[in-house]
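Give me a protein, keeping tokens residue-aligned:
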Amino acid sequence: MGTTWSLRFDNQRMLPLSSVREAVEEALGAVIAQMSHWEQDSDISRINRSTAGSRHVLPKEFAEVMRCAASWGAASGGAIDPTVGLLVACWGFGPEADESGVPVAQALAEARSQVGWQRLAFDAAGGALTQPGGVVLDLSGIAKGFAVDHGTQALQALGLSDFLFEIGGELRGVGRRPGGQPWQVQVDSGLAVAELVALADMAVATSGDRWHQRAHEGRHWSHTIDPRTGEPVAHALASVTVLHPRCMEADALATVLTVLGPDDGWDFAERHRVAALFASHGDPSPTMRATSNWPAQARS
């Protein structure tokens, strides 16, 4: 996935660290084998290369991620779309990145014509999809969160009940710290004082413009691409942090809210009762805004 993972846990059963590491790496390896578009022999890469009209029955984990992405894509009017791969490459990100600069209009139009998860004829109940030809799946906005959940399941299967598991800054807290206190993390937007958040059987994911940017001839743009317009997001929002019991959902929602922006994203989060913290660039000072479901203790 191009990042690191870390784990803190209360090892009351005195499990060998090698066994714990092996369980985590096996779980993450399964996610990579299915959903990493950086791996040429992964399931997602094979689907991306497949011929028009070919039908693919997905592994259950892959199907679960697709169901989540399709659900929030439909709810948000397309603010998250697993078929955004060609657009991501056009703007200089991902394994097939075109790093020549701002894409020309024709290339951008061609990429946009291949975007739209509805074109996959995704069978959510059966866990299968059809490649219409030329569609490039990219699950970067959700798969890392799923990997946190999948790793969490592996750790729980070992009998661990109190741990904090993290992949690339996305975390899930299970149980309590030794001593009985909840796991706590700091949410750093880069704009204001960090928020302290308790992860009592909760997950947290953040999306924003501090990570993975490109620049060309004076123009700067974020790695977050709006599938509806084909353009990188261009608004005052610096980051969105989402709390949810499942990290896959938190990851997907952080992407959705970042694409929707500070106003439409806020309205969406309130309608869907999403616990979210919005950090926006401002003049003369940045602003922090929490939805009504954001825990009050996090604002102390």
In short: The chain has a mean pLDDT of 89. The longest strand covers residues 237-244.
